[in-house]
């Protein structure tokens, strides 16, 4: 019992709330006189940063969708979910900007007006709900992308992916409901600091701080799990170590969102348990909340952007490399008109050359990893004899028309004819040898 008595003061210090929504009277008396004329303000810098990051995020999203829909033509459920998540993402970022510039979170709590005491609560609800919907959709989108790249590699990994999807969906639904109905009646959430309204209505609320801190902490744990899942898949591939590290680095970009999640969790706990000046310090929490969602979209789109950058930034390099290569064997150059189609086929072929047991190419695609075998076709340079033979086919003339005498006569060929290419249509096989010229013969025209 003596040990319990020794530990009791430490436990009380840990659970004692030195902050939150309801300051005690002695704290209220210690606050300075409200300044409604020129109160201390946070400024525009953070709002500008959030808007710029939102613009970059939207550009990355457009590039991702163009790569999937316009270039690769391989869009999936992950792209659909990401497109849906863009709407609450805009709502989240715009709400955060309004919160830290207009609706009260730019001032100290003692400088709040009667209007901002209500608008601060309204914008808080908007930020939290948009955050829950947006981040849940982004996480499920990333997990659907993992499901696409696994193919039939490991059933254990597939189970982990599906389990994570179910966990994220249940987490999102549960906390959206908890946040929406924190207070009873629900709209009383907006009037916690409205003294006149409180005198006329009865209000009961759950522990808002516990809900918000739990949301932030669980979300951060989910971010870590989602970032680490593909590392175990890639590490089992027999590919060069440099390529392993490169692939792991691409997927590990999501750790940036984990850092934002940790900072969001810290400021959520600080606001609800370590200070009564909640509007002044919640300012930092809203910034990290918006950045976490924006950076999550950017990191989730990184694998799909490989095809976009290859299309628009490596075209000149690839042509110059081909022009410099000579002798031996070469890859067949593609005409400009078929560039897009050839790249699509190249992406599909390269995707089919990767195996978990080995690697047939030095490149692993970011949109799909399959277990299969492929074939790479190369064309050897022509020797002198084959070049002369090939040159003889460059000037082609036509067969005589029926009006010129058909196939009879001593001189059925037109003047100057060297070589004629003729092909039988598949539908004409099996017909008698006296075939119709109009049906069966495709002729080359003179150059």
UniProtKB/TrEMBL annotation:
Superkingdom of the source species: Eukaryota
Region feature Disordered, mapped onto this chain: 321-362
Keywords per UniProt: Membrane, Transmembrane, Transmembrane helix
Keyword Chloroplast: no
Lipid bilayer topology: Multi-pass membrane protein
Cell compartment(s), UniProt: Membrane
Main localisation: membrane
CC annotations in GO: membrane
InterPro entries linked to this entry: Rhodopsin_dom_fungi, SAT4-like
Domain Rhodopsin: 63-311
Transmembrane domains' residue ranges: 44-63, 84-103, 123-145, 157-190, 210-233, 245-266, 286-305
Similarity comment: Belongs to the SAT4 family.
Name of the protein in its database record: Rhodopsin domain-containing protein
Organism: Ascochyta lentis
């Amino acid at each position: 019992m003596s040990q319990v008595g020794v530990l009791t003061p430490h436990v009380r210090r840990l659970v004692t709330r030195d902050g939150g929504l309801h300051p005690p009277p002695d704290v209220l008396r210690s606050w300075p006189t409200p300044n409604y004329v020129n109160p201390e303000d946070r400024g525009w810098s953070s709002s500008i940063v959030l808007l710029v990051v939102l613009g970059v995020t939207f550009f990355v999203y457009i590039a991702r969708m163009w790569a999937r829909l316009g270039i690769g033509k391989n869009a999936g459920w992950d792209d659909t979910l990401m497109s849906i998540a863009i709407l609450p993402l805009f709502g989240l970022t715009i709400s955060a900007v309004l919160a830290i510039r207009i609706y009260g979170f730019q001032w100290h709590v003692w400088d709040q007006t009667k209007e901002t005491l209500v608008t601060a609560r309204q914008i808080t609800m908007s930020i939290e709900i948009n955050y829950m919907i947006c981040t849940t959709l982004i996480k499920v989108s990333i997990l659907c992308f993992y499901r696409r790249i696994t193919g039939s590699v490991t059933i254990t990994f597939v189970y982990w992916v599906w389990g994570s999807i179910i966990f994220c969906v249940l987490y999102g639904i549960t906390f959206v409901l908890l946040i929406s109905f924190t207070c009873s009646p629900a709209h009383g959430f907006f009037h916690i600091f409205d003294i006149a309204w409180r005198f006329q209505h009865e209000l009961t609320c759950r522990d808002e701080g516990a809900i918000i801190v739990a949301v932030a902490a669980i979300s951060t744990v989910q971010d870590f799990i989602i970032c680490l899942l593909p590392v175990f898949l890639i590490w089992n591939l027999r590919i060069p170590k440099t390529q392993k590290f490169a692939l792991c680095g691409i997927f590990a970009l999501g750790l940036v969102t984990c850092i934002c999640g940790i900072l969001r969790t810290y400021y959520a706990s600080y606001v609800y348990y370590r200070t009564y000046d909640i509007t002044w310090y919640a300012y930092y929490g809203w910034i990290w909340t918006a950045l976490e969602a924006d950076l999550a979209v950017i990191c989730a789109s990184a694998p799909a952007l490989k095809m976009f950058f290859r299309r628009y930034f490596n075209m000149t390099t690839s042509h110059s490399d081909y022009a410099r290569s000579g002798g031996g064997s070469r890859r067949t150059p593609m005409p400009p008109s078929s560039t897009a189609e050839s790249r699509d086929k190249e992406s599909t072929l390269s995707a089919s050359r990767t195996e978990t047991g080995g690697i047939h190419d030095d490149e692993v695609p970011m949109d799909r990893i399959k277990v299969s075998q492929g074939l790479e076709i190369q064309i050897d340079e022509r020797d002198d004899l084959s070049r002369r033979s090939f040159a003889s086919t460059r000037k082609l003339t036509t067969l005589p028309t029926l009006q010129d005498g058909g196939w009879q006569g001593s001189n059925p060929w037109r003047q100057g004819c060297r070589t004629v290419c003729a092909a039988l249509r598949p539908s004409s096989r099996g017909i008698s040898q006296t075939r119709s010229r109009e049906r069966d013969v495709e002729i080359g025209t003179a150059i």
